[in-house]
Amino acid sequence: MTWDDIGFLLSKNKYSENSLITEFYTKNYGKVSGIIFGGTSKKIKNYLQIGNKVHLNYTSKSESKIGYFKVEIEQALSPYYFDNQQKLTCISSAMGLIKILTADSQKNENLFSLIEKFYKFLKDDNWIKNYIFWELELLKLIGYDLEFHNLVDKEVIDNQIKYFTKSSVEKRIIPNFLIEKSENSEDISTLLNGLKLVGDYLNKTILKPNNLNHPSSRLQFINSLK
User: Fold this and answer.
1) Which of the residues 7, 16, 142, 213 has an alpha carbon 20 to 30 A from that of 202?
2) CA-based max dimension of the chain
């Protein structure tokens, strides 16, 4: 089996002295793993940065055996942010979520387009807020639609609207920007609260039931914002 496609690099791990096992999310074949022979060479390793968009030629002797990639750079996206640790860890977080939340070899063009959308808003001033909504859109695409506006109550405190959820054990404040999407939020503590809410939902509904750990790349991103 042989095919050509484009894909975003999700992960890479050393396979031998000169080779890597890699995972890409491709436009026409979904998430695919393969070996890159010579992947540690100077010629190739410089553009095998997590999140880069790469042209792939894939060859496999059978569907039951791992194949191998020949790669050429399509867009070197990650290097634009080598001097911005927060955005660089955000790229790793996004690719880590795609890696852990998607099944192998299942095409989803909407998900591929979502990755392309990620790089468009990463340049914006409100990129952290947009990333939170990006995570919610990712969850929706894989079947977990967290619609905050259907879950909250509201009250007015000091002439300000506050949204919250209430259970038998706690009353939890929901950041206004998650309900009123047009509202700008630059307060980092509010944005961190939004990331925590999405992370808690991710843990409860997907990760823990499937015995999966929370992606370390997402935790590193959150820590970079503190």
Assistant:
1) 7
2) 68
